Amino acid sequence: MTIETITAEVASAVAPARADGALAHRDILPTLPAQRVIGWTDFVWLWFGMVAQMGVFLLGASFAGRLSLLDALAAIALGNLVVGVVSVLNGDIGIQHGVTYAVYLRAPYGIWGAWAPSLLRAGVAVCWFAIQTYFGATAIDMSVRLLTGYSNWPLWYWSFGAFQILITMRGIHGIKRVENFAAPALLVLSAVVVYLLGSQGGWEKVASFPITNPIPFWVAVTANLSYWITVADNIPDFTRFVKTTPGARGFLNRNRHSLLGQLPGLTLGMMLFATVGYLGKVFTGHGNPVEAIGAALGGVMVLVGLVIILLAQLSTNVAANLYAPGYVLSSLFAPRMSFAHGVLVGGVIGLVAVMPWRLVNAFLTYLPAVGAALSPVAGVMLADYYLIRGRRLNVPALFRRDGPYTYSGGFNPAAYLAHGIASVLGIVWLRYSWLVSVPVAVVLYVTLMRLWILRVHPEAR
Predict the structure, then answer these.
(1) Per the structure, how many domains does the chain have?
(2) For the whole model, what pTM was predicted?
(3) Is the residue at 406 inside a domain?
(4) Which of 1, 45, 233, 313 has the fewest CB atoms in 10 Å of its CB?
(5) Domain containing 136 — which CATH number?
(6) Peptide bond into 335 cis (omega under 30)
(7) Does a structural domain hold residue 281?
(8) CA separation (Å) from 444 to 177, 404, 416, 448?
(9) Residue 204 lies in a domain
(10) Residue 271 sits in which domain range?
(11) What is the DSSP code string of 206-234?
(12) Which residues, 6+ apart, have CB-to-CB distance to 432 below 8 Å?
């Protein structure tokens, strides 16, 4: 589909969308060519900025003493390469059709059925927002306490959270500026930290670090698969702003910026920043860069660790954990809630309702649980877009309550059954949740659609 066709679809979508204000407003209508401002370098920095975060540092640290550094890097590379491929495949939805994640879900889940998976994604995102903000607040508090003796982490929690919300409310342009500054700075600062820690602790310590509590390699792969399934689901929210070439044909040509930006940005970024956490744990016993630097070097060098964490949490939260709820809530509560208002509401809910200090204590259980809950959405999206629709989509119908995506009362039972069964099986085999949930969701959804739903609702194809 050419960019000219996309433009025509936008024009045809506007009238029914305005006629049915419960399904649309200007923030979630398909993007016009002039709105597509993200190139492949922007995407690299976007991913580097998102993966440079305390969660990734701690993930890397959690593998120290359980896997060798080479095995940990192999698990990180494999898991994130797979997620990167899923992200590119799902990203074609935004590139070709210009729609958001929550709007697209109306096709497989139904006009009203899209609410549940959309809210699930938003709920996980605001939990992550609270976790990342908590990490940032504790880093500020630790640094200020070491330097001045003053401690007040709740103050830093609320002020840092409010700052992130205000930036994200500016939309993709504000996020792009943050990532293009933060990601290169984080690369340099992280390299400095690794060098300092290695020089202080001795590089030979890495090879000789004992494996005292080994875990299976595929458990580590699953943790990495689960880590970014959240963004792999809602990646159309970003790719709808990716630059396109007028008249470009073929999947590879259309997705050139997405491929060149996402696969290296996600895979190499995760390997680099998880290594910082792994080495910090080996050299100092701490995965937190502030604690690691404080233990090994102390003094004003603690500020380097603080800057790393603040930039990391900021660049992650604005793109990965506030952007998605903004679009989800504005899609679900149209036209009363704009994208900016969605960001504000989601952010405040995260800060008030989530208790991140509890989630952090169950990190390697929380990640597979997220995978079990959200990975079926990726499976349903892939199966629906490629195997059922062949990448074709009736965009105007996504904004009509009486169109082909109404199914039975606005809900598609095939998507709900596939998602529910895949999630349950993912929980049963929690250590391998992603590896179970995605293929089960794909197979069940395609089978149910072809043998049941499309026979009853043939126009929904």
Answers:
(1) 1
(2) 0.86
(3) no
(4) 1
(5) 1.10.4160.10
(6) yes
(7) yes
(8) 41, 21, 10, 6
(9) yes
(10) 3-362
(11) HHH---SS---HHHHHHHHHHHTHHHHHH
(12) 218, 219, 222, 368
